[in-house]
Amino acid sequence: MTQATLTQASNSGKAVIQTKSFTPSDIDRIFQAQKKKSLELRLSNFKTRILKLKKLKNAVLKYQKEIQTALHSDFKKSPGEVDITEILPTIAEINDAIRHVKHWMRPKNVMTPPTLLGATSRIVYEPKGVCLIIAPWNYPFHLAIAPLAAAIAAGNTVMLKPSEFTPHTADVIKAMLSEVFLEDEVAVFEGDVSVATALLEAPFDHIFFTGSTPVGKIVMAAAAKNLTSVTLELGGKSPSIIAEDADMKVAAERIMWGKFLNAGQTCVAPDYLLIPEAKVDEFVKNAKETTESFFKSKPENFTASPDFCRIVNAKNFGRVSSYIEDAVKKGAKIAYGGEVRSSDNFISPTILTNVSLDARIMEDEIFGPLLPIVTYKTLDEAIHIINERPKPLALYVFTKKRSTSRYVIKRTSSGGTVINDVILHLVNSNLPFGGVNHSGHGSYHGLFGFKTFSHERSVLQTPKASIAKLMYPPYSSFVRLIVRLTTKFFV
């Protein structure tokens, strides 16, 4: 893997890249220190881990204002949205780990088959060791600290790489974590793609990456060189299906919230809408009213709204705005919005109708405030459109009939599914969050995060007089009789 390859795949925006003075020798030094520390942390008990999690939680609360300021500096994210999407879910993840890590750490006794009569079996959860967390730019604080909390709960050391696209937030993460941890336990590496490239050369025990599918492939290839396990939290085109019987006002309100949250720069944002032809006008009408109530203005004045953030950088602004141009060239109509302003990377909430399936907006993950609408005649046609594309990270179904949602779920595949709402499956720490195939590998949140950063070690203990001795050679007629009886009655 080359630096040029990673740079190209990550669509880096040069205007916001900062390079810190990390050399490969620095990385190796800290890696070796963490490797040594990880052997000590293997012996840590739940009280020690809870203490560390509480210190992390207190640091997040202490730095709340700095986090708000940093995210506003990076892409004009409002303090209210920072609290809802960055601080609140992070604290929730840490609190969940504090409450449950004692239980999670306990060895789990499991059944032992009759063929091993007298033996006992259990699963022991042990830390994976030295872990690398590579965080994205769209939720740069939460998606760095939430997996960190899981890694700490599991007893690991962590080398953390925040996104270079959000340098102010990266600075705050560095300052905050430096107060809580020594670098032999948690170390933060700021910088551009060269730092990420150098980090990926180290033989980590686990890599946790959140970002785009193209970069995820590069991370997986780098991990393969050292046979390192990986968790890939990627993205994809998450569809929303509106059924004939759906409540259009409710659907519009919830889809618009999920679509325009963080200016659409959310991995589980509704990426495109599938709707019966006869329902388009009604949906668009409700969507317009909802959007204007959210931002308390007409589209031409959305730039003044403190609650609507910007596209993270010029490169992504150019990419997202080009989807509008391409879709219109291929027959789409701008039903709402469509305003763009390059001076501050502003793209207004936009709804596109009559969108062609071969438009680029229907091929790439949008990661912007654009909602393309595609019509369908039958539910099976909508399902076919979904299944023609890579498996999405999320799938949303709006219907009053449980039979309809079950029909869709059985005939599609996605990382997660929400019925009659969007995005909220992330809030429940009892549900695994992750993708499938193209949209990711592995999952986290709550217990699933603890397991992601743990090795489930099987332990079997046999008594002094083991029944397995009956299977030792020589394979007499008696032994063969025992095998036949065991096969017939116990296996």
Mind explaining what this structure looks like?
There is one protein chain. With 491 residues, the chain is an alpha/beta fold. The chain is built from 16 helices and 18 strands. The strands form four sheets. The chain has a seven-stranded mixed beta sheet with strand order 10-13-14-9-8-15-16, with helices on both faces. Strands 5-4-3-6-7-17 form a six-stranded mixed beta sheet, with helices on both faces. The chain has a three-stranded antiparallel beta sheet with strand order 1-2-18. α5 (79-105) runs parallel beside α6. It is globular and about 85 Å long. The two termini are 48 Å apart. The active site is at residues 233, 267. Residues 36-73 form a coiled coil.
Main CATH class of the largest domain: Alpha Beta
How big a fraction of the residues is strand? 15-25%
Seen as an oligomer or otherwise, the chain set is single chain
Shape: globular
Main β-sheet description: 7 strands, mixed
**Overall tally of domains:** 2
Low-confidence stretches: 1-19
For the biggest β-sheet, the strand order reads 10-13-14-9-8-15-16
Write the CATH fold name of the largest domain. Aldehyde Dehydrogenase, Chain A, domain 1
Q: Kindly state the percentage of residues in helix.
A: 40-55%
Q: End-to-end distance, in Å?
A: 48 Å
Structural class, judged by helices and strands?
Answer: alpha/beta
